[in-house]
């Protein structure tokens, strides 16, 4: 299991964090970001996180097969 601080530096976590900050700034401050652009940005971040999770899962699966 990875240490807590190392998990905070992961690309998936940072992507989710910046996406959450983007959502809070957009909704809370009322910044004039087009809804279509807003949906694309959050969709791309979500797709990235899901893709990276799939790759990590396959890597773990392959490593357990070698043992």
Can you give the helix content as a percent range? over 70%
Percent of residues in β-strands: under 5%
Number of helical elements: 3
Q: SSE order, as H and E? A: HHH
Q: Can you tell me the residue ranges where pLDDT is under 50 for at least 5 consecutive residues?
A: none
Task: Tell me the quaternary state.
Answer: single chain
Task: Give the overall silhouette.
Answer: elongated
Helix/strand/pairing class, anyone? mainly alpha
Strand element count: 0
Task: Give the radius of gyration.
Answer: 16 Å
Describe the main β-sheet briefly.
Answer: none
Summed over residues and divided by their number, the pLDDT gives a mean of 82
Distance between the termini: 17 Å
Q: Would you write up a description of this structure?
A:
This protein has helices at 4-8, 11-28, 35-66. It is mainly α and 67 residues long. The chain has 3 helices and no strands. It is 82% helix and 0% strand. The chain has a domain at 12-27 and 35-48.
Top keywords for this entry?
67 residues, mainly alpha, 3 helices, elongated
Topology:
Elements: H1 4-8, H2 11-28, H3 35-66
Helix pairs in contact: 2-3
Structure described in brief:
With 67 residues, the chain is an all-alpha fold. It has three helices and no strands. It starts with a helix and ends with a helix.
């Amino acid at each position: 299991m990875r240490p807590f601080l190392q998990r905070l530096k992961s690309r998936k976590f940072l992507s989710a964090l910046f996406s959450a900050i983007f959502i809070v700034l957009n909704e809370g401050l009322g910044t004039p970001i087009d809804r279509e652009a807003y949906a694309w940005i959050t969709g791309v971040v979500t797709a990235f996180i899901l893709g990276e999770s799939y790759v990590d899962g396959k890597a773990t699966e392959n490593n357990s097969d070698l043992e």
